Amino acid sequence: MKQKLLIFHPALAPYRIDFFNSLCDKYETKIYFQYKSPIEQSFNEELINNEIDFKPNLLKDPLCGKKNFHIEIFNIIKKENPNVIFISDFNLIGIIVILYKWIH
Fold first, then answer.
1. Of the candidates 23, 69, 70, 72, which lies 20 to 30 Å from 100 by C-alpha distance?
2. Which residues pair with residue 58 across a beta bridge?
3. Which of 12, 6, 64, 16 lies closest to 34, judged by CA?
4. What pTM did the predictor assign?
5. Among candidates 40, 58, 48, which has minimal Cα distance to 20?
6. Distance (Å) of CA 88 to CA 1, 8, 16, 34
7. pLDDT of residue 73
8. Which run of H or of E encompasses 86?
9. Which DSSP letter does residue 10 get?
């Protein structure tokens, strides 16, 4: 039985496709992105979608317009019940993940 992996990442860029695909091969992986595409860069979305081996999930808009303040993360973690959670960097998403761990 594969370990369950949950990933929160800002957006999918072409140079991350191989990394995410390999994680999906080795683990039961769910990936949630904050943005449909990177804010600072423009990529061919159709080409990216043809190369990924997973279904990308998009987080809803942040609460109160605060960047990275996605309260839905509590529900996602509860629903997915992962063994491991990856976050892209330490930000409000990381704090929410830690709060969930402390509470549960």
1. 23
2. 33
3. 12
4. 0.85
5. 48
6. 26, 7, 12, 11
7. 87
8. strand 84-87
9. S
